[in-house]
Every structure is written in C-alpha cells, then in structure tokens.
C-alpha cells in the first residue's frame, strides 16, 4: 500500500493527461489490496509506524481531488469506492499525538486551497478535513485565524458547515472553548476589515463569515447550558434538561414525554410539586439511583 501511495497514485491523479490503461492497472492493484477480508483492520493497525503515515497528507490531497473532480471521468467512481478507506488510513491515530498533530498542520493548507476552488463537492469534503484538523490540534485554530481574511471564501465554507451540521460536530469539538476564542478573534478581524477599504465581493463574504461566527457562538453558549442542565439528574432520565427546574431534581419518575418548548406548563400538568425537591436536599443514596 505504501508503494502504491508513494509512486503510483501521483502518476494517475493530479494530471490532465493520464494514460487510461495505466490508471486502470494502478486502480486494479489498490482494489485488490483492499478486497481482502481483513485488509482494513491490517492496514489500520499499521497506519502509523515510527512516525510515518501509510497514507501521508499529500496523498490524501491527491485522492480528494481525484474523488471529487470538477469534471467526472470513468475512473471517478472507482476512486470514490476506495476513498473512504484510504481517508480513514490518512486520518488514523489518537487525537493529540505527535503524528496526528503533524498531519493536521500539513493538511490544513491543502484543505484551504481546495476550499477556494469552485467545486461544491470538493469544498464540502475539504471543509470536513479542515474541521478534523481543528479537532486534532489546537494550533490549527491559530492557523485558521492567520489565513481567515486572505482566504475568506474558505473560511465561510467551514463556518457554514459548522453551523449547518452543529449537532454532529458538537461532540467532536467539545468542550468548544478554543473554538469560541477563535470565533471571537475572527469577528474582531472582520470588524477591523469592514472598517477599512474592502471591495464589494470581499465585504459580502466577510459579512457572511461574521454572521456564521455569531450563530455558532450562540450555539456554543446554548450547548454549555445544556450540559449544565444534565447535572440536576437524580433518576437517570434522558430528558432531565426538560423535566427539571434549576436547583431541583425530579425523583421517582420515568422519562418525561414532552419537549423543552412545553416546559414548564406540561410539567405542572403531568406532575405535582411534590415530585420536585431541592437538589441540595437529595441524599447520596437518591443520587445513586
């Protein structure tokens, strides 16, 4: 696999004129490697060895462009089939490790470059890789701040994806403290840029970026409050944020069949005040049940 990534992949991707027969033979080889029943697990076990990646960041960039080209060719479908596994190999590793941090710093610039291109599918995938970099390495937030205004379209694409798919990324970015700091810094840069001489196209993009920054900051705040709400649970209810008053706990009840918009009127309709007791008065035994 390493030889294929190092020598054959560059020959069959990233070039305008590639011999179709050569590309077919190269793809046959990698397809055969990946077709084994235990191929994925074996490759993942050796995805990172002695600080070297089986699929380096530069290879992932080539694969991403071959899988999401501006104009599809016959081989695009075959690249799409192998891409998920090879991407998994490229991003393998524990968060915070030296090799993962290095990979994130190397991938971020290529993701920014891909985001700047007029290719919707490539942009979506590059935004996902960009956010992966943020999750793996806090230094990537600083890099984002540095390239924000010079690559405003890329920044807008990332912010839009974070906003639209916040529920998916909230867990990965939790706690979002570093993200909140970066968003505030981006807003400061936006304000400074808009106060100066900015052409109309950039002005619109900066305003859009600022709008998404504001939206995501609001979601970060609501997410923090939600986590605080769970601390009042005394009976294992999965809806504690909805069925508990601040400073109180509901005891001896099953899961509450209502949503947050109906709170507290439905709570009062279904349950009496005797079900609510001050949280600080709960015994340790009650908290364990």
TrEMBL record:
Keyword Manganese applies: no
Keywords on record: Apoptosis, Endoplasmic reticulum, Glycoprotein, Membrane, Transmembrane, Transmembrane helix
Cellular-component GO terms for this entry: endoplasmic reticulum membrane; Golgi apparatus
Subcellular location: Endoplasmic reticulum membrane
UniProt membrane topology term: Multi-pass membrane protein
One Pfam family matching this protein: TMEM214
Subunit field text: Constitutively interacts with CASP4; required for the localization of procaspase 4 to the ER.
Record-stated family: Belongs to the TMEM214 family.
PANTHER family in the record: TRANSMEMBRANE PROTEIN 214 (PTHR13448:SF0)
Role: Critical mediator, in cooperation with CASP4, of endoplasmic reticulum-stress induced apoptosis. Required or the activation of CASP4 following endoplasmic reticulum stress.
Protein name as annotated: Uncharacterized protein
Organism per entry: Iris pallida (Sweet iris)
